[in-house]
Each structure stands twice: as C-alpha cells, then as structure tokens.
C-alpha cells in the first residue's frame, strides 16, 4: 500500500477511524487494567475486522 493510498483511505474514513480509535483505546485500557487479556485479543481482532471492512468498502 502506498502512502498516497493510505492518505486517501484516511481522508475517506477519518471519522470512523477516529471514533474506533477512541472507543477501542478506552476498551483496551480497561481490559488491560483488569487483566482480561482475552478481551484484549478479541478487541484487536475486532479492530482488524473493522479496518478491513472499511478498506474493502474503500476499494469497491
């Protein structure tokens, strides 16, 4: 992926990515502080799926 493509992707989905980063940041912080590492793994998989879905829509 080129820098130009990544920049276009971010410009197209900046609000979704910003909200995802904020919400998941709070989620990860809470899960790590409570020692729920399986929830951290599940959250990472969710983030990967969400960004993958946005990327799939961007390419379509």
Structure description:
- The structure is a single chain.
- The protein is mostly helical and 60 residues long.
- The protein has helices at 3-33, 37-59.
- The longest helix is centred in the N-terminal third of the chain and has 31 residues, at 3-33.
- The mean pLDDT is 92.
Structural key phrases:
0% strand; mainly alpha; 60 residues
Task: Please provide a brief summary of the model.
With 60 residues, the chain is mainly alpha-helical.
Roughly how many Å apart are the termini? 16 Å
Largest sheet: none
| Residue share in helix | over 70%
| Mean residue pLDDT | 92
- Beta content comes to under 5%
Structure summary, number of beta strands: 0
Computed CA radius of gyration, to the nearest angstrom? 13 Å
Q: Which regions are unreliable across 5 or more consecutive residues at pLDDT < 50?
A: none
Element order: H for helix, E for strand: HH
Bulk shape: elongated
Structural class of the secondary structure composition?
mainly alpha
Number of helices: 2
Q: Layout of SSEs?
A:
Blueprint: H1 3-33, H2 37-59
Helix pairs in contact: 1-2
């Amino acid at each position: 992926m080129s820098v130009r493509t990544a920049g276009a992707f971010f410009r197209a989905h900046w609000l979704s990515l910003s909200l995802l980063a904020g919400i998941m940041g709070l989620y990860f912080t809470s899960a790590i502080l409570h020692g729920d590492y399986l929830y951290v793994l599940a959250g990472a998989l969710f983030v990967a799926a969400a960004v993958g879905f946005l990327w799939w829509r961007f390419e379509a």
